[in-house]
Structures are given as C-alpha cells and as structure tokens.
Amino acid sequence: MTTNELTIETTIGDLTEERTDAIVNAANSALLRGGGVCGAIFAKAGPGLDCFCAELSECPTGDARLTPAFDIPIRGIIHAVGPRWNGGNHGEAELLASAWRSSLQLAEASGFRSIAFPSISTGIYGYPLDRAAVVVGRTLADYARSRRARPGSLELVRIVLRDGATMAIYDEAIREGRRLPG
Questions:
Q1: H-helix or E-strand containing 114?
Q2: Please, are residues 36 and 92 in contact by the beta-carbon 8 Å criterion?
Q3: Residue 122's pLDDT is what?
Q4: What distance in Å separates the CA atoms of residue 133 and residue 166, rounded to the nearest whole number?
Q5: CA 7, 8, 12, 16 torsion: positive or negative?
Q6: What span, in angstroms and rounded, lies between the C-alpha atoms of 122 and 105?
Q7: What pLDDT does 182 receive?
Q8: Judging by DSSP bridges, how do beta strands 6-12 and 2-3 pair with one another?
Q9: What's the whole-number average pLDDT of the chain?
C-alpha cells in the first residue's frame, strides 16, 4: 500500500534478516537484552549492542532511542518501548501509538529511507494483537497523511510478522486506517 510516496507493507520473516536502513527493537525501558524479538536482535548485533545500551539512560514507555546496529548490516536499530497491557484503560493505545510515532520520527531525523518493525507489545507485554494492529493502522495512516505538508525521507515501512494469521490482522487494520478521515 502506497500513500503520499510512503509504502507500507507486511511480511512474514525474521526481523534480524531485514536489510532496511533500520529495524525496530520491541525494547524494555532499561534498553537491556530481553527475550523474543529483543533477544534475537541483541544476539545478532553482538556484544557491542549490550555495552552501548548499558551506557544509555532508560527510555520511557512510548518513546524510542537509536543505536548503532553493530554486527547487523544495516544503519541503525531503533529501540521502541511499547506498553504492557493492563486492561486497556491505562493509556495503552496512546503509548503504543507514541512508540511507533517516535520510531518513525527518529528514522526521518536520521535520514533513513526504510524501516522494519515487529509487532510491538503483543508478545510478553500481552497487548491483544487485534487491538494493537488497529492502533498501528491508525498511526501509520496519520503519519502518511502528515507527509502531505511535510515530505520526509522515509519511503518504506515494513512490518515483519511471525505468521500469515498475524499478517492478515495487520493488513486489515492498515486498510481500515487508510479509510479513516484525516
């Protein structure tokens, strides 16, 4: 799907194998090695990422930080801290949207043309997949619409998912997000 010269796509695969300019780590607020996608990124990047992140201050939920990619042959890793699911009445949707927006803004500010995301917060943080996808669809639609007034360098946003069922949920949410008035 392409809107305002921004291509948004989903795929099934291994985020650490993406050759976009940047990949997004579903990070914890301490920016330390975790499990799941986070653990895979740290393992592939090598010990330099552990050392670099240990020197950074914490990253609040809903925000993002950029680090070098070390042993992953891309330009950078954006560490986005999504919210833990706590029933949906504690600002989770806004915090998730903010994590995505912060990542997109960092990518733009860094001159990146492409970025690959995982499904932030839907693993051990327990965010319901269907609800997270709706937030992402709306956030990406808003971002694409905002480019009319402010062309950015980002050309490709890819969401790398684990299976076809997850991809179908994201695809539908992205289509619905584009249909919302803006």
A1: strand 114-117
A2: no
A3: 97
A4: 9
A5: positive
A6: 22
A7: 55
A8: antiparallel
A9: 94
The tokens 């919210």 sit on which residue?
83
> Amino acid letter at 139?
T
Q: Rounded to whole angstroms, how far apart are CA atoms 65 and 58?
A: 9
pLDDT band with cut points at 50, 70 and 90 for residue 57 = confident
> Which amino acid is present at 135?
V
Partners of residue 6 on adjacent β-strands: 3
Please state at what angle helix 47-55 crosses helix 36-45, rounded to 10 degrees: 110
Assign 179 a pLDDT band (cuts: 50, 70, 90). Answer: confident
How would you label 140-157 residue by residue, b for 16+ Cβ within 10 Å and e otherwise? bbebbbeeeeeebebebb
> What are the structure tokens assigned to 27, written together?
């990070």
- The Cα–Cα gap between 138 and 93 comes to 11
pTM for this predicted structure: 0.95
Take residue 2 and report the two structure tokens written for it: 């392409």
Task: Identify the CA nearest to 119 among candidates 173, 59, 65.
Answer: 173
Contact 82, 36 (CB under 8 A): no
- Whole-angstrom CA distances from 106 to 33, 126, 167, 170 are 21, 25, 25, 23
Helices vs strands, H then E, count in the chain = 5, 7
Task: Read off the pLDDT band of 151 (50, 70, 90).
Answer: low
